[in-house]
Write a structure and sequence with these properties.
By secondary structure, the protein is α/β, with parallel strands linked by helices. The protein has one domain: DHBP synthase (Alpha-Beta Complex), CATH 3.90.870.10. It is about 30% helix and about 20% strand. It is globular, with a radius of gyration of 15 Å.
């Protein structure tokens, strides 16, 4: 894919925009996790309550470092053995983590993706990106760019072209400290 697409997507994120992009299983909505107004806009588009929190995707551990606390080497190793890959882990969040990201929790869900489009997006943006399914609350997640556009239309600031990663359902979510599965 042309680097022009990644440049436009990153520019939209930096400007406080909401973008749609392909992930491992479904189309996602993303924005800059440090931009409160952008995150509030994304949540309003989905009709999703802030208290649930949002997942962050990244292309490296360094991009997640500003958001997560790592309680021990064993906890880190548990997650790191599955990354990059389609595994989301819940870690304690740092004090600096914005509450619009962690929601009503002292934890945050994060993933170092192996999906080439997600990785390139995070690299071009220069950090972790919010990743939540592209669908209004109560509707099925978008499985195509067309479906994401039908759901959100002009509310999207950019749609990053690309293909889904081949998973049949969204990534699993596990507690990094216990290993327990929170979502299959």
């Amino acid at each position: 894919m042309s680097s022009v697409h990644f440049r436009k997507a990153a520019r939209a994120l930096r400007a406080g925009g909401v973008i749609a992009y392909p992930t491992e299983a479904v189309w996602g909505l993303g924005t800059d996790p440090w931009n409160e107004r952008a995150c509030e806009r994304l949540l309003a588009m989905k009709d999703r309550s802030w208290d649930k929190g949002l997942i962050l995707v990244a292309s490296s551990a360094e991009q997640l470092a500003p958001f997560i606390e790592v309680p021990s080497n064993a906890v880190w190793k548990r997650a790191a053995l599955t990354w990059p890959g389609p595994n989301t882990w819940v870690f304690p969040c740092r004090e600096e983590t914005p509450m619009w990201i962690s929601g009503d929790h002292d934890t945050i869900a994060v993933r170092i993706s192996a999906h080439e489009t997600v990785r390139a997006l995070c690299e071009r943006f220069g950090g972790a990106v919010v990743s939540t399914s592209a669908n209004p609350a109560g509707r099925e997640p978008a499985l195509s760019a067309t479906q994401a556009r039908l759901y959100f239309g002009d509310e999207l600031d950019y749609v990053l072209p690309g293909a889904l990663g081949g998973l049949s359902k969204p990534t699993s979510i596990r507690d990094a400290q216990t290993g327990h599965i929170l979502r299959r």
